[in-house]
């Protein structure tokens, strides 16, 4: 029981991070029908932006309040990551719009390789650590031999995810920006006929996706304490899996998928073998897609009237 | 057989024109790949007029509507609106000039509610008259009010048509372009929609450019009409006059539409 609760906490933490990244995949797919393979690397870049910013703040400027430092890091990382993703869209995807379907996807793979290599060259191939932060834990259960703990870091990750998702949900559902975004997703040509600047809206989608990936990046750095140039790949693929599992194009689906992948992976590692955790996650994906090809919350493909 | 009647004296209600047209389409050629869909079309719409473009399926009517919005762009020719050449202006900027279109196939946003679809229509106008315009649309189409929180994709064809027109009106257009507003609607609702168009034109001086297969209703409603055949305007003239033309009767009225 104790182990179960502990794994549940760990799984939800990991799943939150996957969910935040998955939204970027699902939104971009929703609006331009493209799998943005570079998104995982954008997440990795955000972790490095966070790392550099954190070290600058704590060592050069000398901010001692860890929470203040983290808050600044979060804002800076969100800003610069959005800028990076905005630039990527302008340079690598927009010129290929209207080209054949695979062209932007190939360009995205190229961008993914470029980002990973750029970071490897400029930051070095080794793990870059930050000093451990916020190490306090809350002991939830204690059976003598096993303590169930909830780290403050985990609380921050889950709360930040929940708050940002709520804010993001509000943005997409209730503001005119979000409405324009959904309109472009459903019928780009019609949105243009109604005076919506489609190119701007697509840029906005990349910016929002990157901002959420940056939150994930900051959380990841805080949780694991290291950043590595190769960290974009596996979390990226997992988050993409989460988006597909939840139903690509569906925002709640991306979050649900992220949480599920996080939980599956964590429970599998705890009860079975840690070596096969990825196999377990991807197998569940394969099985789900056999029986529900549209994903858990995806819409069936028959809606065209 | 390019026979024009533009010299004929205008009937009562049709304004005499010495001013420049509000919308002027000149020699427009539009291609889909290598296929020429419009082969040099000239159409004028003056302020305060209802102008209709009739023609059979595949004549290029909807292509002209979309070409005016730059989707696709004409390969040759020019489109001038209120004295400004809009041939190369981006689509969303054309919409911002207060031209609204209820397009072919209605193109309702299927996963947005009726209310959100109407909000989308108002985005060009900056929501400054939203409540007032909403009320007007609901007076015109009370059915939409009943369906306000329903998703666009779940509406019936007729309701979608009303929503498409309502959405276009929400932008407070100076020129309203309607592509087959009668398509798939019960005769009673068709009459209701045509009455609404006439009413908007009379009371507010709204300029309307109407594409129709339902030639009888359209020509009765319109001040002037154009007949489009295979991407070319073959006839043009005052609405009621076109209605009397034997070629129009034979092709579009008798046997076809009632």
Automatic annotation (TrEMBL), chain A:
Subcellular location(s) of the protein: Cell membrane
Membrane topology: Multi-pass membrane protein
Record protein name field: Branched-chain amino acid ABC transporter permease LivH
Chief site of localization: membrane
Family classification: Belongs to the binding-protein-dependent transport system permease family. LivHM subfamily.
CDD domains hit by this protein: TM_PBP1_LivH_like (cd06582)
Domain of life of the organism encoding this protein: Bacteria
Amino-acid biosynthesis listed as a keyword: no
PANTHER family cross-referenced by the UniProt entry: BRANCHED-CHAIN AMINO ACID TRANSPORT SYSTEM PERMEASE PROTEIN LIVH (PTHR11795), HIGH-AFFINITY BRANCHED-CHAIN AMINO ACID TRANSPORT SYSTEM PERMEASE PROTEIN LIVH (PTHR11795:SF371)
InterPro entries assigned: ABC_transp_permease (IPR001851), BCAA_transport_permease (IPR052157)
Presence of the UniProt keyword Cell inner membrane in the record: yes
Listed transmembrane segments: 12-35, 42-61, 67-88, 100-119, 151-172, 193-223, 243-267, 279-297
Keywords carried by this UniProt record: Amino-acid transport, Cell inner membrane, Cell membrane, Membrane, Transmembrane, Transmembrane helix, Transport
